[in-house]
Amino acid sequence: MSELEQLSERLQATFSEAIEKIELALGELAIVVKPEHMLTTCLSLRDDFGFEELIDIAGVDYLHYGATEWATDEASSEGFSRGVQPEASGRFTFHDAPGEYKHEGPRFAVAYQLLSIANNQRLRVKIFCPDDNLPVVDSVVDVWNGANWFEREAFDLFGIIFKGHPDLRRLLTDYGFVGHPFRKDFPLIGNVEMRYDPEQKRVIYQPVSIEPRVLVPRVIREQAEEKNDA
After folding, report:
1. What is the domain extent for residue 59?
2. CATH number at residue 107
3. How many domains are there within the chain?
């Protein structure tokens, strides 16, 4: 039995009530923890399992999970114009998601990447936010102090609230920014753009002027190369 398999069995035995799912695949171990058991589980992972270091925190938006804009299943990889009509929101503004891409379960999740230097082990912990309209999870700043900026980043980009964070403010976007740019329903081209107005002598906001489009990858066909060589 490998070390990760042993760790998996130990986690399952210790957190039988807290863990919703445990997965060992491709040499990586991941667990899904119930939100109400998050802080106690994280404390135990740090103190009892040796995961003393938090490497990263990532927000996840499962809206339209599985949707694609590319005809990769039907189109040849040697042709041009593999782009199809967009099915996912974000690149364009959509009001309704396509029926076949309705994700089942909570929309937002938070993934924590943990490292045990003493045991040379890594672990991914995922928490799903119960409320899609107001995604909230407990802050782990008191467990791993390095979570401070990571949680601010996830709040800024995904709108996930970290309960108990000492200073939850935007980190990357402008002070007057509206919305959360990493959400799947946020247009990739944005809603507004900034420019300097010489008449007003200041930077102003205006509606975005970029034309939305599906980007079509340019794939070089082997036939064309063979003709050029000939």
Report:
1. 3-63+103-188
2. 3.30.460.80
3. 1
pTM for the predicted model, two decimal places: 0.78
56 within some domain: yes
The answer to the question of residue 70 being in a domain is no
Is residue 130 within 8 Å of residue 106, measured between CB atoms? yes
Q: How far from 5 is each of 1, 10, 18, 23, 54, CA to CA, in Å?
A: 6, 9, 19, 10, 21
Helices (H), 104-197: 147-158
Residue 126's pLDDT band (cuts 50, 70, 90): very high
The residues, any chain, with a CB within 8 Å of residue 82's CB and separated by 6 or more, are 70, 71, 72, 75, 216, 217, 219
Joined together, the tokens standing for residue 133 give 């309209």
Rounded to whole angstroms, how far apart are CA atoms 12 and 165? 29
Paired tokens of 41? 């589980």
Instruction: Indicate the pairing of strand 108-116 with strand 19-25.
Output: unpaired
